[in-house]
C-alpha cells in the first residue's frame, strides 16, 4: 500500500496514528504529496479526483480517500477495534465527526490567513470558525470526558489530532482555559508514542 501524505496535515496524522496503533506502519510506503486548494498536489492526479491527502493506494482495489474512510479500512484490516461495538460505536463515530469539524474550521482559518489576499480577508467569518471550535471544546468538556478517558478508539485519536492542530496553527488563541478537563486529557494523550512519532515538523 502507498499512503499519499503531507507531514503537517492533521487528517494524515489521524491515519498515521491508526497505522502506529494497529501495527501496520511497516506495510505502507509513504509518498509526499503536499498541496493547497490553489495548488493541488500533482502526485494525486489520477489517485484522488479531489487532489487531497490522505489517499491510500491499494494493490487490490481502488485508491481510498478521506481520512475517515481510510482509518475505518485500516482498523478493519487489522482488527484493531477502534470503532467500538454496539451503541458505543455511534459514540466513537460522533466524536470523530465532531473532531473533524474542529479540523475543518481550523483549516479554513489557516487558509484565510495564508491564502486569501489580505485586503479580502473576512475577520467575522474567521471568528465564526473559531466559535465552532469553542463550542466543540465546551461540548467535549461537558459531555465527552469519560469517553475520552476510556479504551482507545477513533474518537480519541481524532480529538487529539484536532486539538493538536489548533495548537500548531493557532497557538495564540486559548481553548484550554475554558476546558481544564479537556486540557488535562489532551496533555496526557499527547505523551502516547504514536502522538510523539507523528508530530508535525516545525515551520
From TrEMBL:
Pfam families linked: GST_C_2 (PF13410), GST_N_3 (PF13417)
Cellular component terms per the entry's GO annotation: cytoplasm
GO molecular function per UniProt: transferase activity
Lineage: Bacteria, Pseudomonadati, Pseudomonadota, Alphaproteobacteria, Rhodobacterales
Domain GST N-terminal residue range list: 1-82
Keywords linked to the UniProt accession: Transferase
Keyword Transferase: yes
UniProt-recorded name of the protein: Glutathione S-transferase
Protein species of origin: Cribrihabitans marinus
Gene3D superfamilies found in the cross-reference section: 1.20.1050.10, Glutaredoxin
Alphabetized PANTHER family for the sequence: GLUTATHIONE S-TRANSFERASE OMEGA, PTHR43968
